[in-house]
Design goal:
Elements (H helix, E strand, L loop, with lengths): L3 H13 L12 H7 L5 H6 L5 E2 L2 E2 L23 H21 L5 H6 L56 H23 L1 H8 L1 E4 L10 E4 L3 H4 L2 H14 L3 E6 L18 E6 L4 E7 H4 L9 H17 L6 E5 L17 E5 L31 E7 L1 H5 L4 H10 L12 E5 L20 E4 L5 H18 L23 H10 L13 E3 H11 L6 H14 L3 E4 L6 E4 L12 H5 L7 H12 L1 H11 L4 E3 H12 L9 H14 L5 E3 L4 E4 L4 H7 L2 H28 L1
Parallel strand pairs: 5-7
Antiparallel strand pairs: 1-2, 3-4, 6-7, 8-9, 9-10, 10-11, 11-12, 13-15, 14-15, 16-18, 17-18
Organism: Sclerotinia trifoliorum
Protein name: 05119d37-b852-4558-a45a-3ad1aec9e0be
Length: 716
């Protein structure tokens, strides 16, 4: 039996790595109802987890449409003694399973603290009437016309029309309550210590900074200075000036923001980047974060918890604060697909060693002392406090913010810390064996808050023993007990129309399908919409890709992670026709030969090719204007700057391709498509996720090509 242990573990983890839409949110309402038929109400919102991921094996839930989140009391069933013992063991195992998922708590613990938003069915009204801060107003949000042409807006799919852009009324209605609370948070941070310290505080150089890095730490001003009206107005003016070049928008938290191709199995909440090419700062909220607010079955507590999460994320992009509202259902449960609701919120600290590698802190020298055995060290200690739903529901009332204005920042603090869980960092010497005052080993996590009683400690000991027992239960697991994620079968009534359209528009500057490599689904769909000549809904296009993938014709398609990856495959295409000379004559004005030589020299330079890989990765398409500005910014190519530079550069691209250029060809209109090999750069620069994905995509394409060749050979 021991020999089967690694095999079962591999099966569980393989299922846990599959990316899919866990609750069918991107399907039509009818298909979603069929997808979740027989599931509990909690599972329809929070999914039925499958396989093993996030260090939790979900086999205990079976395949009966259970979420694993229902509060359960450990009450023995009447009956024979052996059956009672078996029932108690099942409940104990479920108790341990929930503790592993929910930061050491059971669903019953959280429900008792009124911290489960899904079970709070009380009506709570959003009563905020404040205007939205100018930096968040609708004109500050990116629409598709503002995006480079090699990226498309993300379709909403499911039961809603349109795209994830703020000029879509569906999206703006979703955003408005989030922006109202973000406005109040930002306005009050302007008055109080954190943001004031960042912008007006005292700065000191960090001692022993690495060579070539100027690291600083900052300190708050005195309260008397912060509350002075003139300083508050000055800070507000400063915020407006700073945000004059900030644009907000949406992206998929799985994607590379430059190309739209997925770059991770787990979604981020948001990203802020200095878009040097377009001379603006972009704050992009993930669609996965906002997706749950499109549901019509959320309780008011669930809505407000998710709105708060978006609001805090927006303000977080201005400056990170000490408190971190962590969802009970983290992004890993999205499984590469749309986001799930929070379920509830846990309060914890940002300033722990979990975030020591966060962005600009990556190369910072350690400023904290090494933790000592038997000592509490806040940097290596994680405290988790469930937040009652009533507390964050009050954030959406005028009365709460009136108290803040009257009594100051203390009125914002959550004063409901009743019972928490404490865990230690792996770097803490006590992490392996935590012993309490009575000499009892209570493991890595234990109840925290009021002074512990012996019964609390005993429960922690029991939790520890149960956890060990559940982990060892390989002898009762079988590979066939694990369920694979459901497979969606697509139908496409417009298949013939779409195929005819693609065949008739496959040439360069149309859809350029003959030279197409890998594209994100939103980008490919934008090419079709920009080109015109057919009306397709996002759902029709996705259904077409699903059928093409099943037939192994025209395109290979991965719907997840993120919003889809499309790769052209050779099967199913009729022979292509060559481009006529009149095609070029009608396009090109005179191109500057010196500029053509400059571009050729740049593209032959390995450092330029390497920099392009760092910028756009596996995507071989770039908006011509973006490419031009990138060369100017990154390599100082002043020849491509100045008046009429965009038209001149376009002519250089077209003439270079006409003359048989080595490094690129024409994509759809206004798109340059690179053709030089990038395998060497992938080996040097790509992360493990990208290398694995590209290997899978290429092997799949090879299998399809070999199969097609075999069939043609037999037919011949």
């Amino acid at each position: 039996m021991a020999d089967s242990q690694p095999i079962l573990e591999d099966v569980a983890r393989a299922i846990g790595r599959v990316s899919y839409d866990t609750t069918g949110q991107l399907l039509s309402p009818r298909e979603q109802a069929r997808y979740t038929l027989g599931w509990t109400d909690l599972a329809k919102k929070y999914s039925q987890p499958l396989g093993k991921f996030a260090s939790v094996d979900h086999l205990i839930l079976g395949n009966n449409g259970k979420s694993g989140l229902t509060p359960r009391r450990n009450i023995s069933k009447p009956g024979k003694r052996g059956r009672r013992r078996s029932w108690k063991k099942i409940l104990d195992d479920l108790d341990t399973y929930q503790r592993k998922r929910l930061n050491g708590f059971t669903a019953l613990d959280l429900h008792g603290m009124q911290a489960l938003a899904a079970l709070d069915t009380n009506v709570s009204l959003h009563s905020l009437e404040n205007p939205i801060h100018p930096c968040f107003e609708r004109s500050r949000w990116v629409v598709e016309d503002c995006m480079p042409k090699h990226k498309g807006a993300i379709p909403i799919l499911g039961k809603h029309e349109g795209f994830w852009v703020a000029n879509n009324p569906v999206v703006w209605d979703l955003l408005k309550p989030c922006l109202q609370v973000a406005t109040l948070m930002l306005h009050n941070e302007c008055k109080y210590s954190w943001l004031d310290a960042l912008l007006n505080g005292r700065y000191e150089d960090v001692p022993n900074s690495p060579e070539g890095m100027k690291l600083q730490r900052f300190f708050s001003r005195a309260h008397s200075e912060r509350i002075h009206h003139s300083f508050a107005r000055h800070l507000e003016t400063l915020i407006r000036n700073l945000t004059s070049k900030v644009m907000f928008g949406f992206h998929s938290g799985y994607e590379d923001v430059a190309t739209g191709l997925p770059c991770s199995r787990t979604s981020r909440n948001a990203i802020t980047r200095n878009h040097t090419v377009y001379d603006r700062i972009e704050v992009l909220i993930s669609t996965e974060l906002a997706q749950p607010l499109l549901r019509d079955d959320l309780t008011d507590a669930e809505k407000m918890g998710n709105r708060l999460r978006i609001g805090t994320t927006l303000v977080h992009e201005f400056a990170i604060w000490g408190g971190q509202p962590t969802p009970l259902i983290t992004q890993v449960y999205n499984r590469g697909g749309p986001g799930l609701p929070n379920l509830g919120i846990i309060k914890t600290s940002w300033f722990t060693d979990k975030n020591k590698s966060y962005q600009t802190s990556r190369n910072a020298p350690p400023l904290n002392l090494k933790p000592k055995r038997g000592r509490v060290d806040e940097f290596h200690t994680y405290d988790y406090w469930p937040v009652p739903t009533q507390w964050y529901k009050t954030l959406f009332t005028e009365g709460f913010w009136e108290n803040v204005r009257e009594f100051g920042p203390e009125a914002k603090k959550m004063g409901t810390e009743k019972l928490g869980m404490r865990f230690l960092s792996e770097d803490h010497p006590d992490a392996k064996s935590r012993v309490d005052d009575s000499g009892i080993n209570i493991g890595g996590g234990w109840s925290y808050g009021p002074p512990q009683t012996r019964s609390q400690t005993e429960r922690s000991r029991m939790k520890n023993r149960l956890s060990e027992t559940l982990t060892r239960q390989y002898d009762v697991r079988k590979a066939e007990n694990y369920t694979n994620p459901p497979v969606i079968t697509y139908s496409c009534p417009r298949w013939d129309d779409i195929v005819e359209y693609l065949f008739g528009n496959r040439g360069p500057l149309d859809l350029a399908l003959d030279s197409m490599g890998i594209l994100s689904e939103p980008t490919f769909f934008r090419y079709i919409r920009d080109h015109g000549c057919i009306n397709l809904t996002p759902m029709e296009f996705r259904s077409f890709l699903g059928v093409a993938n099943e037939r192994q014709e025209l395109f290979s398609w991965e719907p997840f992670p993120g919003f889809g990856t499309v790769k052209r495959i050779p099967t199913g295409w009729p022979p292509s026709s060559s481009v006529s000379s009149t095609f070029w004559t009608s396009l090109i004005s005179e191109a500057d030969e010196d500029n053509m030589e400059t571009l050729d020299n740049l593209m032959s330079d390995q450092s330029v090719q390497e920099a392009l890989y760092e910028y756009c990765g596996e995507c071989r398409d770039l908006d011509m204007e973006t490419f031009r500005m990138w060369l100017v910014h990154r390599f100082g190519a002043e020849e491509f700057d100045g008046e009429d530079a965009d038209e001149d550069f376009r002519n250089v691209i077209l003439e270079s391709v006409r003359q048989g250029g080595t490094y690129f060809t024409l994509g759809p209109k206004n798109i340059v498509r690179f053709t030089y090999p990038i395998e060497g750069f992938r080996e040097q620069k790509a992360d493990i996720f990208t290398k694995e994905r590209m290997k899978i995509l290429e092997e799949r394409a090879d299998r399809v090509a070999q199969k097609a060749g075999y069939i043609r050979g037999n037919l011949g």
